[in-house]
Every structure is written in structure tokens, then in C-alpha cells.
Amino acid sequence: METRLIKISTENPEADLVEEAARVLREGGLVAFPTETVYGLGGNGLDSEACKKIYSAKGRPSDNPLILHISQISELRPIVREIPPKAQKLMDAFWPGPLTMIFPKSDIVPLTTTGGLDTVAVRFPSHPVAIAIIRASGLPIAGPSANSSGKPSPTRASHVAFDLSGKIDMIVDGGAAEWGLESTIVDVSGEIPIILRPGAITKEMMEAVVDEVLIDPAILSKPSDDLRPKAPGMKYTHYSPAAKVTLVKGDSNAVIRKINQLCASDSAQGKKTGVMATEETKEFYQADVVLSLGKRESPEEIGANLFKFLRKFDFLGVDMVYSEVFPEVGEGLAIMNRLNKAAGYSRIDAE
Ligand code: AMP
Ligand code: MG
Fold this sequence. Notes:
Layout: E1 4-7, H1 15-26, E2 31-33, E3 40-44, H2 48-58, E4 67-69, H3 85-94, E5 99-104, E6 119-123, H4 128-137, E7 141-142, H5 157-164, E8 170-173, E9 184-187, E10 194-197, H6 203-210, E11 214-215, E12 244-249, H7 252-268, E13 273-277, E14 289-292, H8 299-315, E15 320-324, H9 332-342, E16 347-349
Parallel strand pairs: 1-8, 2-8, 4-6, 5-9, 10-11, 12-15, 12-16, 13-14, 13-15
Antiparallel strand pairs: 2-3, 3-7, 4-7, 5-6, 9-10
Helix pairs in contact: 1-4, 8-9
Bound molecules: adenosine monophosphate (AMP) and magnesium ion.
């Protein structure tokens, strides 16, 4: 299959290009488009065949459900059985935006979309291109991240092309995804909302609206048989570049010393080394490639660069990547969740 690449204006998406993408979706095809989190791989979320194509293009396990994307609140009602009061409050506060909520599904949503579950994940993105394409299609659009399953999520059209060229109908290039990490997922079906995947909308932000929010304990450590994440997708290895990623924890000087030792020993064995540093530390590392994620006090910057850098290390043929770690609070929780997964939970204490 030939994949068409079209460039679109981010602020004022051209109506004819939007309509072309929407037509592909209505005809059962697949279109990758930008959202404010990462690029999504869109298909008709009410069409089992289109959803099967999504699983197949991504190489995604079929028990890993898809998120349905809508472009206005009125599109929610037909796909869910009920809207719990707390969901309504969260929706009022954070939609459109990087928050996905889990609802009991209505009959029109196929089990192929939900990986066999009786619930459906729904998000109303805020990106003008995503909103325009979904609205023009007239459909709820299943939109998982537009990467090959297991690889870092794509934050640029070029990342999508690298993974999925030849496997999907169209890629709509609307520039860089601003936030760079996937949406927060919250289960609102019980009395107290539970975060199933941390993201830009933090526990603290939601608690300001609905009092109490819990975090699925399985996402704070390595998933195991005793501790299975409630979001099926969270149990899989994710975000893994070809390089081996190791996190190094400790006070700043100890981390720099430890990483430099590790890089020296890797280099002696002929390995190419990389470091994910910060603005404060970047000049102190001796490695083949040193990339600064941003300032330590700027989680937005760090989040936006993380997946891009994991891909860049691969592109540069780096074998061993060492990364600093960040406090697991606020948006730092999402950053550390993705970093831990990228590293397969491999972590060294630098004391
Ligand atoms: P992605 O679309 O690649 O961002 O991944 C979607 C994530 O949402 C995966 O971790 C899924 O397991 C999770 N998800 C989607 N639908 C549901 C659902 N009904 N219940 C729980 N988790 C879900
Ligand atoms: Mg994904």
C-alpha cells in the first residue's frame, strides 16, 4: 500500500485536506494525525474491520483496547451506557484535552474496539487538526498512538512514517505534538476515580475537581502476576528503543560520576553510549551522544522531548543509553512511568 503524506496547517487546517482525510476514514481506511499528546492512528471506531486493520498495522495485541476520539461532547452519549456524575465534572474541567475516561460501553461499540471489554475509553482531544478530521468524518475515531507496538510513541509525522509507511493510507503532518506523552487514563466507573495511566492531567489537578483520586498501584512498579494493571495495555513492554536503557538514581554528582564510569566501560567494549541529561548537568557527561531533556523544573519540556530522544538514540546507532531520574510527583509521574518502561525497569543506585 502506498501511504500518502499530506502537510496541513496546525492552526487553520485546510478544509479540502481535512475532507480528504475524513473520506479515507469513512471508507474504512487508516489515517495518522497529530493530537496534543502524540500522533494517533485513526480508523472508524464503530467498524470492526477498520479496527482490525489498526491492530494489524501496529502489530498490537488484540486484547489491548483502543481509545475512541470525539470532537464534541454530544458525540459521547451514543457510545456509552451512562455518564457518572464524577465523569461529568472531569469532562467539564478537562475536555477538550489530554484526559481519557473509561465508561460502560453502548451496544454500537464493537468488542474489537474494546479488546473484548464491556467498557470503552473515550477522549476529546484539543488539537485543531484532530478535532477537524474527527468532526468531518462524523464518526468516533479509534486512535491509538501511531507507532509500531512496543516502540516509543510518535511525536512527529516523520516518526509515524518510519514505523507505518506502506501499512496505512495516509499521514497528516501537522507539526510536533505539543505535550509528547500519551493522555492520562482515568476509570470513572467506581465511586472513586482511579488513574490507570499517568499523563498531563495529574492526580492533583483532578482532585481539585472531584476530591479524591486513586492511582492503580500496578502502574507504580514493575507489573507482575500479583499486580496486574487495570489498563490492559499497561502490562506490555513499551517505548523500547533498540538501545539498552538504564536509569541511574542518586544525588546529581553521584549520578554524573556513575554514568561516566558506565560509559567509559561500555566504550572500552566498543559500544556507542548516550546520556539523557538535563540543562543543569549536560556539560558534565562524557558519552558519544549527550541530549538534554530540558530544565529539571520544567516537566513539560522533559515530557515533550522524551520519546523524540529515545528515537534519536536509535537513529544515531547508540547501544547503551543512561538516563537521570525525576521526582514521581505531578507530571513527573507520567515521565517516570514511560522512562521505567523504556528501561524495562532497569535502574542503578549511584551512591
Ligand atoms: P494507546 O491508544 O496506544 O494510547 O493505548 C491505549 C491505552 O488505553 C492502553 O493502555 C489500553 O489498555 C487502555 N484502554 C483502552 N480502553 C480501555 C478500557 N476499556 N479499559 C481499560 N483500559 C483501556
Ligand atoms: Mg500506544
